[in-house]
Amino acid sequence: MDWNNDGKKDLLSGDTKGQVWLFLNTGTQKAPELAEGVRVQADGQPILGNPPRYSDSDGGLQVERDPEKLMGIYSKIHLGDWDGDGLKDLLIGQDGPGGRNLLFYKNIGTQSDPKFGQPKPLELPGPSMSRPSPYLVDWDGDGKLDLLFGTERPEVYFFRNIGTKQKPKLEPGKKIELIGDDFSRGYRCRIDVTDWNGDGKLDVLAGNFYSHKRPVGGNIWLFLGK
After folding, report:
1. Which residue of 38, 43, 80, 168 is most buried, as measured by CB atoms within 10 A?
2. What are the tens digits of pLDDT across the range 136-145?
3. Could you state, in order of their start, the residue ranges of all structural domains in the chain?
């Protein structure tokens, strides 16, 4: 991810408090050196997750959520041009009410100096996902960006963009079949899409937390495109 369009890869990271951190590359493309992290802001304030509130009702304990705010912790982020204006926007997955699992932070700055406005919740047509982790990519090769999601479970979903580049509209998500030794035992799946082996096909890198054979552990799985 090249945050400031200087031709060098930088690092953008979420954390356990729902914050988003930027680490600029002060080295070179071949020998990166990362500066001290700074918190990414939206509408002039650092991005921060809001823990859900709980209320007791006749039906038992209920979770109260504000769909206009980033809810929960463990910010799950992706930087990409959601609205087709040529600028890098910020997407953050969350455990929102109903289908509002995704917050869109529009880039109101420039390509080399991104700045974000207030978040806008985006309605997803389903299925319901826990801790969704978004990734923008043209998965079906039609020239429009689609959305892939890793989830709390060892599952990845594909939401096809049937709208336009400037006005995306998503079909209901379909599970992508990922078969790997013990992959189904992991959780908190996070993904990246690339052409790993240079064969012109999209491959999926999936990181997850896995503790079947040892007390604590994480893995990165490679699924080659067919």
Report:
1. 168
2. 999 999 999 9
3. 72-223
